[in-house]
């Protein structure tokens, strides 16, 4: 669980977002350490709890709220031989040039080489004549 700040209009349990890095006003903000200091650029986060604390923010149209976030499970295509529920593997993206499947091939929030735990096999997917497994994974830290 990570504590961070999000714009009050976005502060809703269940909302997912990608953190892309600090905005210009963040570089001099006194709350930057708690707001962006706990987030990794390029990672996906899901709000699990909104606390009743708010702060002024020049970036988020007035105010930000304190929230608790986690990295959610993410769906990704994988070679069938690696798709074993419960196993932990180093993520290797598959080759698939179908634009409709781009978000499953290289989903935002995951990077090549991440250590992930396979939680569930969701579906079988074909791309370019090859068969892959669509799996739900959770990134393992450290």
Would you give an account of this structure?
This protein has 142 residues and is mainly β. It has two domains: 2-70, no CATH class; 74-139, no CATH class. 6% of the residues lie in helices and 46% in strands. It is built from two helices and eight strands; from the N terminus they run E-E-H-E-E-E-E-H-E-E. It has helices at 32-35, 102-105, and strands at residues 2-7, 16-19, 43-57, 62-70, 74-78, 88-90, 115-127, 130-139. Strands 1-4-3-2 form a four-stranded antiparallel beta sheet, with no helix packed on it. A four-stranded antiparallel beta sheet has the order 5-8-7-6. Strand 3 (43-57) and strand 4 (62-70) form a beta hairpin. The longest helix has 4 residues, at 32-35. The two termini are 15 Å apart. The relative contact order is 0.20.
């Amino acid at each position: 669980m990570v504590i961070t700040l999000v714009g009050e209009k976005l502060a809703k349990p269940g909302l997912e977002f990608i953190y892309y890095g600090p905005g210009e006003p963040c570089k001099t903000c006194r709350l930057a350490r708690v707001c962006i200091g706990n987030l990794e650029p390029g990672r996906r986060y899901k709000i699990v709890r909104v606390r009743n604390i708010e702060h002024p923010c020049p970036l988020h149209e007035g105010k930000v709220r304190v929230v608790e976030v986690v990295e959610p499970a993410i769906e990704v295509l994988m070679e069938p031989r690696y798709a074993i529920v419960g196993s932990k593997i180093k993520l290797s993206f598959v080759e698939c040039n179908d634009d409709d499947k781009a978000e499953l091939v290289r989903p935002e929030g995951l990077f090549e080489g991440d250590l992930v735990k396979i939680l569930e096999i969701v579906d079988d997917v074909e791309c370019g004549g090859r068969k892959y497994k669509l799996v739900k994974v959770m990134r393992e830290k450290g």
